[in-house]
Amino acid sequence: MNIENLLRETLSDMADEERPPAPDRFLRLRERRPRRRGLAAVAATAVAAMVVGSTLVVQQMSARAPDDAAARPARSLQAGATVNVAAGMRLSQLFKQLSRLTGRPVAEFERAAKDGTALGLPSYARRALEGFAFPGTYEFSPTASPAEILRPMVARFEEAAEAADLVEGARRAGRTPLEIVTIASIVQAEAGRDEDMAKIARVVHNRLNRKMHLQVASTVMYGTNKYGVEVAPEDVRSPSPYNTYRRRGLPPGPIGSPGADAIRAALHPARGTWLYFVAVDPKRRVMKFATSESEYAALAKEYKRNLEGR
Over the stretch 57-70, which tens digit does the pLDDT of each residue have? Predict the structure, then answer.
């Protein structure tokens, strides 16, 4: 079969494929580095690359667990090579998706993440990428290096940090910029609704100011590499530095990628004396707040009733 017939047949096959839905709830960022590839051993792949350009596609990825159906890569060879970073996503999730998509080992992305200078990380990040791969939709060439894929995520974080006046705002709050990003990552992980973020941030600030244990499930889950909303007894006993049931203060760093709303909430928490928050109805994402232990106990009972369907 000559190249023209092969091209015609390939395009016909591609026309019958269903395109993945566009993730309209993420900020779309595009960095085009178009490169043509020569004819490969698999002729259809080579022809498709010549026609639509070298592309990669990933569907929306879930911050809840790396193996969720929505986290699986879509079929490649679609125009517009996109990678979506969901708010709250951990680097471990992102790296697995990028590895599956690009064919590169996860270790290559882990190595790239350690080179803070090459990625353009702010100095207060302490050369750690977690928390600084800003949520959004990004577009790349399949031949891009891990650093080239990750760098725009850091650049977008820097833009968001500047817009939020993060450094100066942290100083006014009596925190370091890294502490604010860490608080924002906890807020992002714990909030079921955006309107609860400022209140959750206030609870975190209040407990820190009182030198109380934060006792939030999201940090414990991060430290044990688990996902969920309830911690098991063995998790509470974990020696992980992210175990905020045993260790006072904030964990060593962010536990995921906070979005702009979570960063603003960490910088500008709501006014209040709350010390507790409980997702009393996780299905409807209803969260309530309490100031005293007795109020907290009542909310915990309400949660159990809803959980049992009473």
Answer: 222 223 344 333 33
